[in-house]
Amino acid sequence: MRDLHYFLDIEVTRSSSCKYIRDLLGRTNLANAKSVHTPMINASILAKDDGDHLDDPTEYRSLTGAFQYVVLTQSDIAYVVNRVCQFIHAPTTIHLVALKRILRYLRGTLNYGLVFRPFDRLSLVAYADAN
């Protein structure tokens, strides 16, 4: 198959810039970390009482918020971001490990993502089912 350029009137381009993700990796000292192929282990079940509670959950909360922004351009991490956000009120060391695995996954997928560009012709189409 050839490279995708347009899909549902959205322009798709490949870009290796990913400055936002690179900044996240640098902030967490994972810029040179080994990447992983999946954002979460399949057998991994996160629970609220797994591990020790973090003394300062500020970094955890900041990263989960940043991931919610990254989901807009890399929808493949939407499920795992939802999972780690469920523990934002009382994160543990196990949850932080899961968060760092997502970062390691993003490290290996820096050239993935969606690019949204403005388009000069706006066309709004709506459908309704009267039933």
From TrEMBL:
It comes from Gossypium stocksii. This is Reverse transcriptase Ty1/copia-type domain-containing protein. It comes from the Eukaryota.
